[in-house]
Prior knowledge:
By secondary structure, this protein is of the alpha/beta class. The protein folds into 3 domains: 2-135, Lambda Exonuclease, Chain A; 147-224, Orthogonal Bundle (DNA polymerase, domain 1); 238-389, Nucleotidyltransferase, domain 5 (2-Layer Sandwich), CATH 3.30.420.10. Helix content is 44%, strand content 18%. It has helices at 5-13, 15-21, 31-37, 84-98, 120-135, 155-164, 176-184, 190-194, 198-205, 207-222, 272-279, 294-302, 313-320, 330-336, 347-360, 363-389; strands at residues 2-3, 42-43, 47-51, 54-58, 62-66, 69-75, 103-109, 114-117, 226-227, 238-245, 250-258, 261-266, 286-289, 309-312, 321-322. The strands form 4 sheets. The chain has a 5-stranded mixed beta sheet with strand order 2-5-6-7-8. Strands 12-11-10-13-14 form a 5-stranded mixed beta sheet. The longest helix has 27 residues, at 363-389. The relative contact order is 0.09. Residues 14, 16-17, 143-145, 148-149, 152, 154-155, 158 line the site of iron/sulfur cluster.
Amino acid sequence: MVIGYDEVEAFLTCPRKxxxxxxxxxxxxxxxxxxxxxxxxxxxxxxxxxxxxAKLISTPDLVVKEGEGWKIILRKKAKRFKEKYALxxxxxxxxxxxxxxxxxxxxxxxxxxxxxxxxWKNLIPVVEDILAxxxxxxxxxxxxxxxHCRYCDFLEECEKTLLDKKSLMLVxxxxxxxxxxxxxxxxxxxxxxxxxxxxxLEKFFGKxxxxxxxxxxxxxxxxxxxxITPPRVLPEGIVVDIEYHPSEExxxxxxxxxxxxxxxxxxxEGKYALVYFLNSLEDGATFYHxxxxxxxxxxxIIGKNRKFNFIDVFSILRxxxxxxxxxxxxxxxxKYLGYKWRTSLNxxxxxxxxxxxxxxRNEELLQQMLLYNEDDVRATKKVLDxxxxxxxxx
Length: 394
Ligand code: SF4
């Protein structure tokens, strides 16, 4: 088994996800270690050690000689220091130490902060315990349902596992707290929930939420979409999806579907073409988007006095339908409705693709990025078509 810090993070988020993505294979690296031992500073070194038959790989951003030891530097893009960096720093320090490279210090730096880690030695037992749990994991662990499931490739597998157990964790909106409340009032399975007395549930969750919970349990048990009320008639419009880079705090790609034609605007090349396109639209134009802050962003570019309509497809879907799915992410809902995604990239991977493209201007990377964004707008259209097919007068 090969374990880098990404694997540790995946395990901490959901052991089951780590279990499915465990990698085997040989890793040999002595080049970086040799350079380090000669006293050179090394950018992106690869240092490997072995623990209980697993290969641990440390790949920090920079290592420099400092006195008798080596200082590890981790570069971050975040604006503020995050507590989780301490665990990451300790993981690297552990691998270095086990490889015979003594650590003199660890620094976590970004454009906005610089923090020398003082307490990493105290965290070594914590990291060792985590690694032992990862290495000795034998059985397929239980799903650990949460917001992180939204982008997970194993969402459908986990839905099946939970459905076999008729688990309440399938129901969107049931987190640990709600689960505990259900347990205390004797509701432990989807069957219990589907047949629950709504008057009892209302005391805990209110009328609307209780009704939705019961309908959701039925949707799973009957494996079908349940319409609560038909949505209103929706006008023709343009579908929009914006790609945002959180650490750079800016948008980098605007994608539109206009009469089935995909149009895109890369903000790396300036906003001029995007502003020109938006200005060319008439007042009264309708934009459809799936969740997200598209309305605010487009109005901030074009000015609040333009009379555009913005309709959130996600809000209408949630208000009028209950799907037998764990997550109402665009990816899951559109797939349920039969949309065939052409790329398996997720929201995190698109960011690293964008960063690589910025450095290399590689056409292949650009095409992958565009395909991802085009899939998002076409998938939104798929959901929109579903809503239109069920609207009051269709
Ligand atoms: S869907 Fe959620 S519970 Fe299942 S493996 Fe992915 S992150 Fe874990």
